[in-house]
Amino acid sequence: MAPSQNGSEPLLPPKLLNEGPEPISATSLGAIKALSILRIALGASVLIAPRWSSALFRLPIPAEMAVIARLFGGREVVLGELLLTAQDKNSPTGGRREMKRALWANIGADSLDVCSVIFAVATGTMGKVPGALFGGGAAVLIALAALSLKGF
Asked: pTM of the prediction?
């Protein structure tokens, strides 16, 4: 270690043993809560009424394809619940690692959604308006998860 100007102190003082990580910012905690509630609400609506929920995004689906929408809804509920329950107030780190993992899982799922929508619009299997609504929604969720990660 290089000595400081007076020759006896290190440049960076050692970390105190009882010093824990900095608390997660209020902005991050708020964004995480909003993201998890949005996901759970979206997923529940698609599980309960898949055709109605899809129609909100201007994407009509036939009754026999409602199961595909319900699979999407189930994924949204699971990701939202994972994020909502990741914080561990009894842990010395507050569950930071699990919260980061849940946020990255959300970003990964939404990134796949954006890529799928781009492919569907490019090949003509999805219209531009539903593509913009689905892709835009996924992009907003990615931005919210990224904002949440900034507070770690």
From this structure: 0.82
